[in-house]
Amino acid sequence: MTDLLEDFETKRESIREEVESHIKKRDEANAQAQKYAKIRDELNQKTHEMREQAKAKIAEKNDLIEKIKTLREEKEEHYKNLSELKKKLREIKSGEASGLDIKDIKAKEKELQYLEKRQQTTELTKEEENKIIVEIRRLNNEIRKAKANREEELLKNKDIKELTDKINEERALGEQYKKQIEEMSEKISKLSDEINTMLQELDEVRHTADENHELFVKYSQESEKEHAAFIKAKNDLRDLEKAIYAIKNKTKVSKKKEKESELQEKASELYEKFKAGEQLTTEDLLILQKAGFL
Asked: pLDDT value at position 162?
């Protein structure tokens, strides 16, 4: 019985250490799980914020695309009207008499084209080439002055001047359309780059969040496993302590019975002496009394 009790007590100490070990491992795994859960939640929140920012950029880009579409339609209609105004101006100019005959300008332009072609395609002496260069310069100056003079004379006509001013205004407006479209196109291109960068970063953050979630699951499972092992070890310890208590109690009862048996045997001997008339000591009498003989 003593050997069994010693074995059980040794085993009890071993199980106590096992219980403490499982508690420590469970708490460490749980701490790790909570750490990765916190990182995951922060990254998921960041992912949500980045997704909303990307949506806002995409909405802004789509809005600009619709605006630029409208501007292009307006620009197309504008240049169509401008073309009609130019056509009308040409018709008025062609029907307007002036001191400068347009045919003379056309003749000089034709002569200029001939000289430029000759200079480019014909083998000339240095002297001939210099003469042609001088003539080309003269014709360019005369044509430019003739056109300026004709334009100045034509502008004296009220209708031509008003139409010319209108065309200039419409041309300036057309340039504004072009500028607006160019600026919007650049902004759309910039937004596209920003959106692509944001989506790449979003994908990386989401991937990192997924990795942290996997670690959270891993350590949560480890914590649950250690907790289950802790419960089992705790139950084993409780059962073992019950067994130890039972053994100790049984041993105590056995010793008590053994002691009582010795007392009865001693008391029987003393009682026989008492009946035989032998003198007993006070201690002997106490033993007889304790054993129930007196």
From this structure: 74
